[in-house]
Automatic annotation (TrEMBL), chain A:
Pfam assignment, any one: BPD_transp_2
An annotated Gene Ontology molecular function: transmembrane transporter activity
Topological type in the membrane: Multi-pass membrane protein
Main location: membrane
Swiss-Prot/TrEMBL keywords: Cell membrane, Membrane, Transmembrane, Transmembrane helix
Membrane-spanning residues: 12-37, 66-84, 96-112, 118-141, 150-172, 202-221, 250-268, 274-296, 303-323, 329-348
Protein name: ABC transporter permease
Species name: Aliigemmobacter aestuarii
From TrEMBL, chain B:
Swiss-Prot/TrEMBL keywords: Signal
Organism classification: Bacteria, Pseudomonadati, Pseudomonadota, Alphaproteobacteria, Rhodobacterales
Protein's name according to its UniProt entry: BMP family ABC transporter substrate-binding protein
InterPro entries documented for this protein: ABC-Purine-Binding (IPR052910), Peripla_BP_I (IPR028082), PnrA-like (IPR003760)
Cellular component GO terms held in the UniProt record: plasma membrane
Signal sequence extent: 1-24
Length: 361, 363
């Protein structure tokens, strides 16, 4: 019989190997699923992981799209990872993402049709502020009334979605849109458009900010006292308290940073790839980012890679649906497997598998 | 936009690589691609579009290759999906939901040799974009007639997707014709804010049934409202939406609006093959066979059925228009004078309810 034995400290080797093993297991299990659907599993896996990067027909377009898709995931996941490390669970990044988009878009549309170089920076700040303020609701409720931030932040997502619908239908609706819901298309207004910075690379301001945030988060965690406090609070809350770390201050900081980053991601998305505030603007980046954060081991560099990998499964998944006629549910199941195997294999970094010996009577 | 030029160049290169396959003159083989907002298994809106796609394949056999992608969100992802389709060599791409409007036009600009067909929208910013829609309000008038005759509680309901002209038009046609045969009728509207979400659609139906509504029409894509009505042992009836939804015959589904896109899709792909495709704005109805009225079942009394069928035939013959004055707007101001029929422009931009509806359009 097999028996699990807790390791005295998590295995370093397994911590690094886990995501790789999880990806390989996902490919195997996914391949079996694709084969059962009557598709060639090798071709399906190749279409998902290889074609977006190297297929001559698509790569020139899909490689830049990887950055476009990964940018918001990385930005949101970075913010979340800080809180997760400290044991502060912001599950409502999707709501903060939506509010960032609304605040940012509203700030710009309020002065439409004024053209000024100042508008875009103001919109960026407004976007970050929107996400920050939305995250402050669960944060302050937690510090003052000890409410559970998981529940409050999650439920606020649904509130944000309703505000989004109401904005698309009401206050922010395009007055020249023939009564249809949706704001003006920001990406078509030069002063507000988050355009590609270098043609053909997919690099927009949001991607740049995501890369800067990776470096900043890395420095914060490695070199800054706050990073030390975050790690300490997560690993040994009592010790952190003795060391003078204020739990309330950490809650406000972690929720605030993750909210602001999610808000920024929302703003860069609405002013660029999405273009407008519409009822179905939110497509789940805030939730997917939770997977990205864990897949990246809550480590800034890991999150960078995990974000790119997740984006690859989206873009490759679209290609596979279209080129091979795979149902979209199969692709979603495939992505779900990734998280499932990650959590399953994660066991190995904290436990080792032993063959159980006969107990001595 | 520099990316635009780059992609246009790429598209041009592709066109050359395929021996100029995407030129204006006819072609021997064409690839027709379809983008769906829901799963093709929704048994409603996306299912019917997919039936149209299959009809194209059936009609042209080896001359046409079809490809599709389901459950594509109406947002940033749509533009990428469309671009990938164009890159993969599609000659004509049908985008089958309103929310793909800006994405369709943006991608059409980058691929001038690919034809784009956008359903239910109003933007044609490039010569390679056509738009098409169906006169669903004609079917709504017939449903309204049946609803007005069949309701016992005098409360009828409508599950709205989004408060856009398309849906408001349907609500007005439904209410006007119920009111005409039953002056005491009251209309409840519940907004689901989704095209396809069986759970939300079921909740909307439940809420209405609890309020005493006994006839429910829906403007969303799943069979969930009918499934809710089926739990009432015949007390509540409804209609198949977009597809026949024959599984719920003879009750609660007493009739249906069937979107038959096949004739249009076959015609348009044929025009791509013979090189006569042009950017058009098509709005066809019962007359052209694009809107079909599914069988009216025996749950409806014979005289009501005969009246409903007579209305269907009159609409098809062009002798009756569902929006014929006198009709006032909700605020009491005049819209159509006696005997005047509604101009298409008024219908396509409809943002008001007609007189008698007590609900308000969400703002």
């Amino acid at each position: 019989m097999l028996r699990l034995e807790k390791r005295p400290s998590p295995s370093r080797a397994w911590t690094i190997a886990t995501p790789v093993v999880a990806v390989i297991l996902t490919m195997v299990a996914g391949g079996i699923m694709f084969a059962m659907l009557g598709k060639d599993p090798v071709e399906a896996i190749r279409t998902i992981f290889w074609d977006p990067l190297f297929n001559a027909q698509f790569a020139a377009y899909s490689r830049p799209q990887l950055l476009v898709k990964a940018g918001p995931l990385i930005l949101i996941a970075l913010g979340l990872s800080l809180g997760f490390r400290a044991g502060i669970w912001n599950i409502g990044a999707e709501g903060q993402y939506i509010m960032g988009a609304i605040f940012g878009a509203a700030a710009g549309l309020a002065v439409y049709p004024v053209e000024s170089r100042l508008i875009f920076p103001v919109m960026i700040i407004a976007g970050g502020l929107g996400g920050f303020l939305w995250a402050m609701i669960p944060a302050i409720l937690k510090t003052h009334f000890r409410t559970n931030e998981i529940l409050v932040s999650l439920l606020l997502v649904y509130v944000a979605q309703n505000i989004l619908s109401s904005m698309a239908l009401g206050a922010l609706r395009n007055p020249e849109g023939g009564g249809f819901p949706g704001s003006r298309n920001l990406s078509q207004i030069p002063a507000m458009a988050n355009t590609e910075l270098v043609a053909g690379t997919g690099m927009h301001w949001g991607v740049v900010v995501a890369f800067v945030a990776v470096i900043a988060a890395y420095i914060l965690l490695q070199r800054h006292i706050l990073g030390f406090q975050i790690k300490l609070a997560g690993q040994a809350p009592r010790a952190a308290r003795f060391a003078g770390v204020s739990p309330n201050r950490l809650v406000i900081l972690c929720m605030g940073i993750s909210g602001a980053l999610a808000g920024l991601a929302g703003f860069f998305e609405v002013s660029g790839p999405a273009g407008q505030i519409s009822i179905d603007f939110a497509t789940g980046y805030g939730f997917t980012a939770i997977i990205v954060a864990f897949l990246g081991r809550l480590n800034p560099l890991g999150i960078l890679l995990a974000g790119l990998l997740m984006a690859l499964t989206y873009i490759g998944g679209e290609l596979a649906q279209f080129m091979l006629g795979l149902p979209s549910a199969a692709i979603q199941a495939f992505q779900g497997m990734l998280l499932f195997f990650l959590l399953a294999v994660d066991l190995l970094s904290n436990y080792r598998i032993r063959l159980a010996r006969k107990e001595i009577a | 936009m520099k990316r635009r030029t780059l992609l246009a160049t790429a598209a041009l290169g592709l066109g050359l690589a395929f021996g100029g396959a995407a030129q204006a003159q006819g072609m021997d083989k064409a690839k027709a691609c379809f983008v769906y907002v829901g799963p093709i298994g929704d048994l409603g809106w996306s299912y019917q579009h997919h039936q149209g796609a299959l009809a194209v394949k059936e009609a042209y056999g080896d001359k046409v290759e079809i490809a599709w992608q389901e459950s594509v969100p109406e947002g940033a992802d749509a533009e990428r999906v469309l671009t990938q389709m164009a890159l993969s060599g599609c000659n004509i791409i049908f985008t089958t939901s309103f929310g793909y409007m800006d994405a369709t036009n943006a991608v059409a600009a980058k691929f001038p040799d690919v034809k784009f067909e956008h359903a239910t929208g109003y933007k044609r910013e490039h010569p390679n974009v056509a738009i098409y829609n169906a006169r669903f309000y004609e079917g709504r008038a017939i449903q309204g007639h049946i609803a007005g005759k069949m309701t016992k509680s005098n409360k009828i309901g409508y599950i709205g997707s989004f408060p856009i002209p398309e849906v408001i038009m349907g609500i007005n046609a439904y209410y006007l014709h119920a009111k005409k045969v039953n002056p005491n009728v009251e209309l409840t509207v519940v907004w689901a804010y989704t095209w396809f979400d069986p759970a939300k659609e079921a909740d909307a139906a439940k809420a209405m049934i609890e309020q005493g509504v006994d006839v429910i029409a829906s403007h969303t894509d799943s069979t969930a409202p009918l499934a809710e009505a089926a739990k009432t042992n015949g007390a509540v009836i409804g209609f198949g939406q977009a597809s026949d939804m024959a599984d719920y015959k003879p009750s609660p589904r007493v009739s249906s609006i069937i979107d038959n896109w096949a004739p249009y899709y076959v015609k348009r792909v044929g025009q791509v093959l013979d090189g006569t495709w042009e950017s058009t704005d098509t709005w066809a109805g019962i007359n052209e066979g694009e809107v079909e009225i599914g069988e009216i079942t025996e749950a409806v009394p014979a005289d009501v059925k005969a009246e409903a069928e007579a209305m269907r035939d009159a609409i098809a013959a062009g002798t009756y228009h569902p929006f014929t004055g006198p009709i006032n707007k909700q605020d009491g101001s005049a819209w159509l004078a006696d005997g005047v029929t509604a101009p298409d422009g008024d219908l396509l931009g409809m943002t008001f309810y007609v007189e008698g509806i007590t609900a308000e359009i969400p703002q």
